[in-house]
Design brief:
By secondary structure, this protein is mainly alpha-helical. About 60% of the residues lie in helices and about 5% in strands. Helix 5 packs antiparallel against helix 12 (about 235-245) and helix 6 packs antiparallel against helix 10. It is globular.
Length: about 650
Amino acid sequence: MTYRSLSELRPLRLDTVAAIGGVLLAAVLFPLRFLTSQIYLNTVPVILGTACTLYLLSLYQRDDPGAFPTLPSAISMALPSAVLVGLTGLVLLTVVQGARTHLFFGLASVVGTLVIGQIVFVSDRDLHPGLLLLQIVCFAFVFRFTALYATPGYIGIDIWTHHEFIDAILADQSLGAISHDKHYGSPFYHLLVAASSLLYDVPIRAALYLSVGLVMPLSVLLVYATTNLLVSPRWAVLATALYAFASHVARWGMHLIPTSLGLVFFLAMLYALLRVMRIEYTIRDFSLLLLSSIAVILTHQVSTFIMLVLLLAAFLAQFVFVIGPLGLTRLDASVFRTKKPVNLVGLVVFNLGLTIFVWSLTPYRQDSFLATVLSYFTQTLEESAGFLNTAGDSSDGAKAGAEAAPTLIEQLVPYVDTLGFLLLLGATFVGCLYVVHRRRAEQSVFTLLLAAAFMLVFILGLPMFGIRSFIPTRWFAFLYAPMAVLGAIGVRTLRGNMTPALVAAVLLVVVLVYPGAMVLAAESNAENPVFSTQHERLAYDESELAAAESIGELTGSPQGEEIRPDQQLHTDHPYQTLFSRTGAYPSTTTATVPEDGVANHGYTVYRSAQSTEATYVTDGDGNTRIAHLSRGQLCRPDQATVYTNGDVTMCTPSPASN
């Protein structure tokens, strides 16, 4: 292996300096792993250092005369059929087994590997982007709709509240039915599902799947359209696959709430934004951008804030290229076509003003949404902000309250959950280094780079200081869009510049590990977790749903103010949310069960899942922990059983004890 000289490659150019700086930053951050067990502090420095090192190797290796290894034509032609057979097998497995089991997720991982393997390793002659996109979309449909098919009710927690809102809108034939809630100011999701229910003459659940449910898998094509504005079809297809297989993207394709629809409009807005930056746009193109941004504002508040972060990134990119520091305006025409930066000041001001106006009129907790959010953020800064204050981080949730030393599986599960994200993050780092080269940098790619950087600050940076007011877990699916585009550019960079043997090894890791890691992540299998002793099941079977309905009928579904404090119902989390969000028993909360002790509540509900799966309770100090409870720990012998269906039991104070 030979290398170019440093003087020949001008090592002080921006991308080289950034890569060297990335290696140094990774070295500085590495010791933080000894101060905290936060998963991202343990892993991101390693990923950053590895990505920067690979990029530096791609710079200084001489071009190897050997061609990059590709699959034989016979295998390339057979792989689409193999993927189709695999997808058929996924459907049959779900129908026969009645759920997405471990076998389902194993086969899904293999199918995902076959798809990405085609994209990366087939020759240019055998590459058919349309056929690959069809496979990706079919995989997205099958992976999501098998979960929806196998789940009797809904997947997730918030969806039950939105079902009640839609039902109220249909009953009153008016949006005024939810005038007390923050979604009154962003009602597009609820109106869409309600209209679909009326149009198709189907129940709300079916209407949801026929509207938002159908749109979610198709929305991945917007990532292809966006990436194809920058690179060739092969890498645009790769970006589509990286995005479609991502765990958090799959999550919002199954937990269908306003976040899901907000994500669709966000992707449309991202495409329109890059389109006006890359072409000589017309009024139609800018109208699409404007309408997409308005749709986000009228759909979901968190999505709106993320969109504003994207617009801020685009505005800063415009500022950079108007000022022109470091010679960034001297583009290489062979990479990107020279184009004057688009003026986005008017768009940013309009969307910011409309957002403030809508949020000021949106009711939320006895005040406007804007005032409440600002109050919460101020309170967070005053009470819980602090360096490395990661208490309550979701990534450590499985360990909360645990006193015993964690088992091997407990130590490995967080890494399995984040492995797919870390692989994509590494490819994103390489893509970012590629686009900051002064002759390859331009407004569109800098927008993606800055947007990804800002989102990572909200997702990974602020929680390290105890600031979680921005609900960082909702940001991942949005972050995956610019990451997928930059990640595809990063993979293309390594494939084109590194020696074939080394790049083939790197790409094999991506092909073999990325799909499986995303499939096994908790967000992809919330209705039937792969690691059921570490992750709660965010769906319910027929007996659990029937029990909630029957208990509601038994108690008369009293209003919250009609229930005395001693009559509050206690059960595990997340099951307690089903009672409160459906109105079956509004005053319901998580049970307090001391370690190896019993609950001291009057009204409790036990379900068999508490003994076999991961469910959450609180200990005597109020800390949340995973517990495997026996029936006697929640329903004591001195209580009376007022309802049971063999799987779920409700216990109340015994009359004999009074």
